[in-house]
Fold this protein.
Amino acid sequence: MTFTQQDARPELESAPVSEWWRTAVIYQIYPRSFADASGDGLGDLPGVTAHLDDLKELGVDAIWLSPFQRSPQKDAGYDVADYRDVDPIFGTLADFDAMLAGAHERGIRVIVDLVPNHSSDQHVWFQEALKSAPGSPERARYIFRDGAGENGELPPNNWESVFGGGMWKRVTEADGTPGQWYLHIFDESQPDFDWTNPEVRAEFRDILRFWLDRGVDGFRVDVAHGLIKAAGLPDFTPDPEGGSMGGDAAGVPYWGQPGVHEVWREWHEVLAEYDGDRALCAEAWLPTVAQTALWVRPDEMHQAFNFHYLETKWDAEALRAVITESLHEYAAVGAPSTWVLSNHDVVRHASRLALTAENPQGAGIGPKSPGKPDPVTGLQRARAATSLMLALPGSSYLYQGEELGLPEVIDLPDDARQDPTWFRTEGERYGRDGCRVPIPWTADAPAYGFNDTGAAWLPQPAEWAELARDVQREDPASTLSLYRSLLAERRAHGLGAGSLEWLDGYGDDVVAFRNGAVTVIANLGDTAVELPDGDVVVASGPWEGASLPTDTTVWIAAA
Ligand code: NOJ
């Protein structure tokens, strides 16, 4: 069976397939933890600009920046108070423009995060809503409802916030009496917009244009599956074992409602007015690959994160199945599949792939978590997994620090934790701080070169000196060297635009396929696998003779 990027519905056969985002490797920058030029312990935009050459050297095609817009930082910037400005902790609009120009000069495209599901409670619209009467146009931009119970003292329904606790907060009206309730899928400082309101829609089309006019190449759209809520806001009780963002759960009245597609069609038209193949990428956690593919139909978004791939266990059969399904379902709508293993909301894959207990997305791991990973196994699997991923046709996302093999930081002190999940669940869930620790650049420098003052908003582990970029640059066996080779060979062999043909005969625990001239063999089993003839152009770990050890992936070019 062979799948190609060009497989498409008949009516799409003439559609262009050359847009950059179809094959790009996109590197996620989490600005507060990337590089800190000001020295205040929080990364910033001048820090990004200062390291663009490192990203060029790594070989990525584009960067995606998590939010840097003006925000009280209650959810690390995913609580935006002004969508058209840069938060002073990250710099200024001029710093943004300089960063964008520097990236473009180096041939690196730039995607910015857009958070349309909710704003910060400090947003001028929400402040106006609080001061205005129930039923006013100011309240109609958000989801305000009267409470249940005799005196409205109970929340309007039973929904639970993704971060723990209830999804409604009661306000005090201007006259001092207890009043209506507003909906917040996330923290109470993140009120949800009402996307049935045309004023909200117009405002976001304008925000898109603000950033497109500045020259951004696209948007990563936050909580794209949450914008529309089911009519009547019916009660719903989530599975306590499920991932916090939705995941497998079907029929959730606040996730994946059909009305969102109208929004994406409007946005698609806005982007189409601009040159340069600007792109939208959906953060949408949906029950099936097939449902996710509907978000990237030709007149909607361009990409959607493949969280089904990210959530697949380190298991050959499961990987073959999700890859086959993804290539089929996305090809059916004429879109590329994306691939991703880590981001700022999940346990880093150098730890996650060696967990021995269930760990739903968003729960995080900490000192008291069961099934803690063995770091050596975790890193070996992570290197093998990335080597597999970067050989797949389509576009791949990388998360800052994974090119250094960074593990999740498990033993953060309780008093350092900052994720609202930690507070809202009273420590029952650790949350996502462990994947957000500032990354190490230089072994022998304050904060490992994150800045020159030594300040860091989350403490960096002592073991990270040996993982610093300057140490790894000099070591051909380092994870950084592996990523550089993978990206160079991927480009040289055109793998992103290639096709996948499964190869049989290597056994159930092996993922083996051909993409153009490159044969990829990933051994997930306990016994060594005999390699075919050809030149090994990249290997995720040591191998001897023609024998491929466990948890190792190789790329072999035809001899
Ligand atoms: C998804 C983002 O990736 C996450 O970090 C954030 O907390 C929520 N959306 C709320 O915006």
About this structure: The CA atoms of residues 317 and 508 lie 7 Å apart. The chain has a mean pLDDT of 95. Residues 75, 78, 115, 186, 222-223, 283, 344-345 surround 1-deoxynojirimycin (CB under 6 Å). The longest strand covers residues 109-114.
